[in-house]
Amino acid sequence: MEQKVVLITGCSSGIGLSLAVHLASNPSKAYKVYATMRNLDKKQRLLESVRGLHKDTMAILQMDVTDQQSILDAKKNVTEGRIDILVCNAGVGLMGPLEAQSLDTIHAVLDVNLLGTIRTIQTFLPDMKRKRLGRILVTGSMGGLQGLPFNEVYCASKFAVEGACESLAILLQHFNIHVSLIECGPVNTDFLMNLKRTEPSDEVLEVDGYTRSLYDQYLQHCQSVFQNAAQDTDDIIQVLQQTARTLIQNVKP
Ligand SMILES: NC(=O)c1ccc[n+]([C@@H]2O[C@H](COP(=O)([O-])OP(=O)(O)OC[C@H]3O[C@@H](n4cnc5c(N)ncnc54)[C@H](OP(=O)(O)O)[C@@H]3O)[C@@H](O)[C@H]2O)c1
């Protein structure tokens, strides 16, 4: 069977990295994986995880989902000239009292999570439509289904991604393109470490004392949830892989 060409965003760590490793290590070499990341200086971790198994099943490309030109450049570097499965995974969290967030920070988070997902889909969609074939998998979140305190902007971005993807899915079924949202709960990745976070002890934090103490409690709760109840990336990869496989089997002749 012809290799399925997969492009994944945000492969420097976490879910993106694990998915790239799993697909590129498929024993029947069923996938050619374009593992993209915004900063190629971080590629060592991925290379170490895939341990030389990637010769003909993985290529690493630079791609920043906030930079249209870098998405176009990545597309140009896909030697097969097509993407069968697009995985929009890049994302960043933002935690803290809403009134303490600068508009620049809010904009930056929306730019990655919402506009980054839309830019990426926009870039690869016309080819998929022409071919009447394609699969789009998006790393959504429980925070896109249900609001979480001190995560207003992150949740807003993930709710918006839900709306965009659900709307697209209706149209794209006419083009044999399936859109799937994988709505993760807490997952053991670098997400908590990488998210943009306001510290309750921050002297310049202009919020009242009650909000500050509720935020402090929330952060402790959050740490304990991630320590005690977070899923392993393997659980998420299983769902993503299963979705990709099911969709491939459903391809119309
Ligand atoms: N972990 C969780 O608990 C959880 C729960 C629900 C949903 N999710 C979602 O799962 C996805 C993956 O997160 P993760 O848990 O694997 O966290 P992670 O380890 O922090 O990975 C996030 C990835 O996104 C990349 N990224 C950030 N901004 C980018 C940009 N402008 N262009 C391209 N890549 C960019 C990061 O690259 P850098 O290394 O360069 O920053 C990193 O590779 C995110 O969409 C997140 O919202 C995670």
TrEMBL record:
* UniProt KW keywords: Lipid metabolism, Oxidoreductase
Question: Which BP terms in the Gene Ontology apply to this protein?
Answer: estrogen biosynthetic process
Pfam families cross-referenced by the UniProt entry: adh_short
A Gene Ontology molecular function term for this protein is: estradiol 17-beta-dehydrogenase [NAD(P)+] activity
Q: Where are the transmembrane segments?
A: none
Q: Which InterPro entries match?
A: NAD(P)-bd_dom_sf, SDR_fam
Cellular component terms (Gene Ontology): cytosol
Q: Which family does it belong to?
A: Belongs to the short-chain dehydrogenases/reductases (SDR) family.
What is the name listed in the Swiss-Prot or TrEMBL entry for this protein?
A: Estradiol 17-beta-dehydrogenase 1
**Could you tell me which species this protein originates from?**
Labeo rohita (Indian major carp)
